[in-house]
Each structure stands twice: as structure tokens, then as C-alpha cells.
Amino acid sequence: MELMIAEKGLTLDVAIKSMHVAELTKQLGEKDMLKAVTGAILVAAEYFNVKGGINESQAVQTASLWIEQYPLETFEDLLLCLKNAKLGKYGIVYNRIDGQTIFEWFRAYLDEKYERFEQMKKQEKMDAMAESEVFIGLAAKVLSNKPKAEECTSQISHESHLQKFKEMLADMGKHELLDAKRYYLKQNSQTLSGVFQDYIDLINEAILLK
User: Fold this and answer.
1) In whole angstroms, what is the distance from residue 85 CA to residue 7 CA?
2) CA atoms of 102 and 112, how far apart (whole Å)
């Protein structure tokens, strides 16, 4: 029942942002982690009406291998994968469910997961550029020879955007640079993949030159 409740609101985004298996194993302990994964596999297998179902021994072995092979994925990944399988997303299940079946499902799931992960990183990069436009707008008050922030758009390439950002930093004082660094460090801590690091590196370079 608890597993069914847990999988109810699962999405790829939630699974991607959840705790990695390696970290969760340290938190729960290897024994409890193995129990959780084994339980998820057995519950999912009970959904299917097949002659060659997976028994408890097979489920334990499959769970152990899964934990070993996918330390950087998440338990939510497995739950979502099994939910998708029950919905028929990876094809119709005919005569058997075993460890190989589970791993085939999970490999198919990972293709979808990392496609979504790339979309999320791209969106974060675009959001980072949009956020920096806000900062450029504030700094533009001291840059009389620079275009207004409203003239900048998210269509600018990332490289030219960084060059524009670097030029802006050159005209800022050390106090303003430190404020900018604090701003981007805060933003970086709230993102999935540290997309503001390029800005922080440029700010650090500018501070060294002051």
C-alpha cells in the first residue's frame, strides 16, 4: 500500500531530483535498502498474470544487482519504471517476469529519463541567462556606454552573453562584485546542475583584477 501511494504522484522530474541510491543506502543501511527494492519488485510483479513470475529469491538477487549497478539513479526511478511497465509502456508482458525483464524495463526508462534530464539542463541554462539579465539591468545604471537591459534578449548565444557579462564586470567596483558573487552563489545552490558557475568564475576573475 505504501509503495502504491509513493508512486501515485511520481514524475520524471521528481525522480531525477530525488536522493541517489548510494546516498539513500548510507542513510537506510544496506539491509533496509535491499528490502525496499525487493519489495517494490515483488509488488510490481504481482500485478501481472503470467506463468513465469518472479519469486522472492529472484527478486532479492535482482534488487541486489540493481543497487550495485545503478548507485547514481534513484529509488523513485525504479518505482516510476515499474509503474510504467504496469501501464504497458515497455510492451506487453506475456509469459515471464524475471531479473532480465526488470533490467530491460529500466534501460528503456533511462533513455526517457536522460532525455528529460537534458531538457531540464537546457531550461536551467535559459533560466540562468534570464536571471543574469535582471542583474545586468541593475548594473546598467553605472554603465552609461552599455545598452539597457531591456535590449538584451534570451536569444543571445551563451558565449556572447558571457562576454557581455565579463565586460560589465570590468566596470564594477570590488564591493559590487562581491554582492554579485553572493547573488549567483545563492542562485547556484538552488539549481540542479550548477548552471551559474560560469558567471561565478568570471566574477572571481574580475575580483582578482581589482
Assistant:
1) 13
2) 16
CA atoms of 55 and 52, how far apart (whole Å): 9
The angle, 0 to 180 degrees and rounded to 10, between the axes of the packed helices 99-139 and 174-189 is 160
Least confident range of 62-76, 89-103, 116-130, 133-147? 133-147
* Chain centre distance of CA 48: 31
Buried b (16+ CB within 10 A) or exposed e, 161-173: bbebbeebbeebe
Q: pTM higher than 0.70 for the full model?
A: no
Say if residues 99 and 62 touch (Cβ distance below 8 Å): yes
Q: Is pLDDT larger for residue 198 or for residue 145?
A: 198
Measured CA to CA, the distance from residue 150 to residue 154 in angstroms comes to: 11
The C-alpha cell at 116 is 528529460
- What the block records as the C-alpha cell of 8 is 501515485
Q: Using one digit for the tens of pLDDT, what is the confidence trace for 83-108? A: 999 999 998 888 889 999 999 999 99
Q: Domain segments of the chain: what residues?
A: 2-97, 120-208
CB atoms within 10 A of CB 124: 16
Close Cβ partners of 38 (under 8 Å, ≥ 6 residues apart): 56, 59, 60, 62, 63
* Cα–Cα dist 54/149, whole Å: 61
